[in-house]
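Much of what follows relies on a compact textual record of a protein's fold. A complete example follows; check for yourself that the lines match position by position.
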Amino acid sequence: MNPTSDSEFKRSSPQAFGDMVGRLRRRFERTVYVSAADVPDEPQSPYRARLGVATEQPDAGVEVREREVVRGTVRIVYEIRCDCGRRWFHRRRERVQLCPRCARAVLIESD
């Protein structure tokens, strides 16, 4: 027998052996599968568009319109002005910009 494996066997405690046996038993337990029909729907939150059909009828005289919900993107553009009067736009907010007209360093301050 390999002396390292023999010494490892001697160092293991009865509790460690019991833990190993328990892990082995759990590996051979029967797997329980869940049907997708059994999973409940996510609760409606105030921040999510309701996609279901309305069950109650609206009051008379109330106009109801449906709108399509789409995803949009945001692009932030910073306007930078130099003391020489030149202004330009940049997509990233950097602390210092170089003026295209006078080539001076412009320290960016927020309003």
